[in-house]
Amino acid sequence: MAFTLGELGLLTAFVLTFAVGFQRQRPATLTTAEADSIRQAMNDQRLERENDLRLIQVLRDSLTDLRSPQRPACQQMGLIEGYLVTVRVVGRDEYVVEGDTLSISGIQSRFAQQLGESMLRGCVHQALALHAAGLPVETFVSAFNRLGQLFYVRAGNQP
Q1: Where are the domains of the chain?
Q2: C-alpha separations of 32 from 27, 29, 45 in Å
Q3: Which residues contact 85 (CB under 8 A, 6 or more apart)?
Q4: Is 129:103 a contact under the CB 8 Å cutoff?
Q5: What is the third-level CATH fold of 85-157?
Q6: Got the DSSP string for 33-74?
Q7: pLDDT in tens, 84-140
Q8: pLDDT, tens digit (0-9, with 9 covering 90-100), for 25-65
Q9: 70 φ, ψ to 5°?
Q10: Is the pTM of this model over 0.85?
């Protein structure tokens, strides 16, 4: 079998490349100090990776607990459309609801069933508080804040 000069050159290059590559892959002998240093570096990297994973887990856990302590409006939960009640504020503790003048406790009594149901469902009903003409602002604000003990209140003007 006869080889050309090019084929012999290619075969020689292949044999030399394989021999050099094989020689490079031979394990080198390490001193005890070098081996300990490598083990320590690998252990440090493992500890860093574990610490990073713990930090990621803590961050993930903190992000999953982002629920607001404020209860949603019953309207947002689809339990009711619009406001539960429209109230016209006529005095510090005087509210006109559906033609009746009530105190805050009267409103609470009239809507006790709805307020109880909203507590069980974890929501708060909304109320619209209308500012009667001629009512001092301080009086309206005081009455508005009292309504806020029972409802999420939105202020409006008397038409």
Answers
A1: 5-64, 85-157
A2: 15, 10, 20
A3: 97, 107, 111, 125, 127, 128, 151
A4: no
A5: Nucleotidyltransferase; domain 5 (3.30.420)
A6: HHHHHHHHHHHHHHHHHHHHHHHHHHHHHHHH----SSPPBT
A7: 999 999 988 899 999 999 999 999 999 999 999 988 888 899 999 998 888 898 999
A8: 555 677 888 888 888 888 888 888 888 888 888 877 776 66
A9: -75, 130
A10: no
